[in-house]
Amino acid sequence: MKNLLIVAALMLVIVFQSQAQRGEHKREFNPEKMAQKITDKMAEKLELSEDQKQKVYQLHLDRLQKRKEQHQEMMEKRKAMREKMEAEHKENQAKLEEILTPEQKAKWEEIKKDEWEKRRKYRDAKGNPDREKLKKMHQEKKKEGESDG
């Protein structure tokens, strides 16, 4: 029985990996189909009896349904956290605007724009296979840090 669970776990990992590589992970997750797929594959490879097939299917179905529920809960928590953080950010921005003069606000917006542009360039260089570009960005960043301090 222990070997059966190990094989089942390995099969599940393989199925998830192959789906992720094909980009299917963005589709709606269907516990019934997934449990059936795993059960069919195990039945084929291990010559399971009908009773074993039913038990294996139910085992995987229960676990996959639980995983789907956990995933949905996590996504709801993330959404709530994101909304909370956005609200806090807006509140802080409003307070900051009360403190700064119009000239300081304009200067601060320009600074934020420049920083955003630097991050964008760095992100683009990081995704680029041309690592020399990335190294150059790091060196420029170091030089800026030394001249500021």
UniProtKB/TrEMBL annotation:
Region (Disordered): 66-104, 117-149
Protein name according to UniProt: Spy/CpxP family protein refolding chaperone
Entry keyword set: Signal
Domain of life: Bacteria
Signal sequence interval, chain numbering: 1-20
InterPro entries, sorted: Metal_resist
Keyword set includes rRNA processing: no
Basic and acidic residues composition-biased segments: 70-104, 117-133
Pfam families: Metal_resist
